[in-house]
Amino acid sequence: MYEGEIAIGPIHSSILEPHRLRLFIEDEIVKDAELTIGVNYRGVELLMEGLPPEKATILTEKICGICSHIHLWCAVRVTEMGCNIEIPERANYIRVIVEELERLHSHTLLFGHVFEVLGHETMAMRAFMIREPVLQTLFEISGSRIQYSCPIIGGIRPRCNIPDKRIPSLMERIERFEEKMEKLLDRTLRDPLIVSRMKDIGIMDRKIAAKYHAVGPTARGSGIRSDMRKMDYVPEYDPFEFEEILLDDGDVLSRILVRMYECLESCKIIKQALKGLYHLPKKFYNPNYEITEFKPIDTYNEAQRGQVYYSYGVNSEGRIIHTKVRTPTETNLACMEAVLKGYHVSDAELIITSCDPCFTCTDRSIFVIEKKEV
User: Fold this and answer.
1) Of 276, 283, 271, whose CA–CA distance to 91 is shortest?
2) Taking Cα atoms as reference points, which of 343, 340, 185, 149 lies closest to residue 261?
3) How far apart are CA 342 and CA 180, in angstroms?
4) Do 300 and 233 contact (CB within 8 A), yes or no?
5) Which residues bind Fe cation per the record (predicted)?
6) Which residues are part of a known binding site for Fe cation?
7) What is the pLDDT of residues 316-341, one digit of tens each?
8) Residues 6 or more apart from 169 whose CB is under 8 A from it?
9) Residue 202: C-alpha distances to residues 199, 208, 220, 270, 345 (Å)
10) What is the DSSP-derived secondary structure letter of residue 152?
11) Annotated binding site, which residues?
12) Contact 333/354 with Cβ under 8 angstroms?
């Protein structure tokens, strides 16, 4: 029997972002695993402290390129809650539209990466082709394909306002995306290669998911309700009807299927929001606000990977204090590290990929915590 260690990363062809994975194996079965992150540390939270909210919130958008909107939205919500700033309903609708479009492009990016890890280049290219019109839609709304700078304190930027004449073309594009996603879902389930590589692999039961605090689609793939949009933390979603997708198998296939079904639910939300814009007042920004002193306030939202938490306060000089950001990947990675044991070494990177890790989001704060404790 061979016993040894396999080291993957921090740079490897099968990983999108730097991380180091150590697999301790017997023959080709993983007996233990150690995942090390921190390569992308940038100290964003410390940089935010001492800045006025208008500048600091823009900095949060740079935490991650794939989920930039949700970070900026959470950051401006803290100030809006702390200063009791009224937000026009039209601005809230457009914030939701951009977030759900971002969810679509993030999930389809993951599908492409998963298929690449499986060695199925054809399906990977299908996923990226489906994703491209979503990025084009975001570009047409905001002027950018990745970082959209849509929310600002008091509403949204003027360039992100969606005029009524553009709604029909956006609706048509979402409907085409919906059709293509349904075909991708069908092809995934009918492909024996894909199903055999993901079914009953990386099983995370409810006990492990609860112990390591799995969130987002990673938790919902194990049957745990975790959608912040359905838990009264994000009132902006109250006007819309959609389902929280739950699957019970807890394997890689379940975690991927949750996201595929979620894409269809996001399409429902976007279409409802676009129709609702016809009947809303044209006001999308409230300039009549004042930044006042407030103690640290908490806010939550449901990012593509799960629960996002933001907290900061503003002092009497109008500067941010005590910044804290928590993203979903850290706890989801702990879950994946725990479930690696007992599986073949060739499945290790696939299991980690199935939680849709975002290492730049996660690395932004880990060493800040250590520094404050010293």
Assistant:
1) 283
2) 185
3) 36
4) yes
5) 67, 361
6) 67, 361
7) 999 999 899 999 988 898 898 899 99
8) none
9) 9, 12, 15, 32, 11
10) E
11) 45, 64, 67, 325, 358, 361
12) no
User: What is this structure's pTM?
Assistant: 0.93
Instruction: Check which CATH number belongs to the domain holding 96 and give it.
Output: 1.10.645.10
Residue position matching structure tokens 């995942």: 35
On the CB side of 91, CA atoms within 13 Å amount to 22
Binding residues for Ni(2+): 64, 67, 358
Strand 294-302 to 151-152 pairing: unpaired
Q: How many C-beta atoms lie closer than 10 Å to residue 260's C-beta?
A: 21
User: How many structural domains comprise the chain?
Assistant: 1
DSSP state of 344: B
Which residue range(s) make up the domain with 358?
A: 3-373
CA–CA dist 234, 310 (Å, integer)? 13
The pLDDT tens digits for 20-49 are 888 898 888 999 988 887 777 778 888 899
- Residue numbers in the known binding site for Mg(2+) are 45, 325
Place of tokens 């991650």: 64
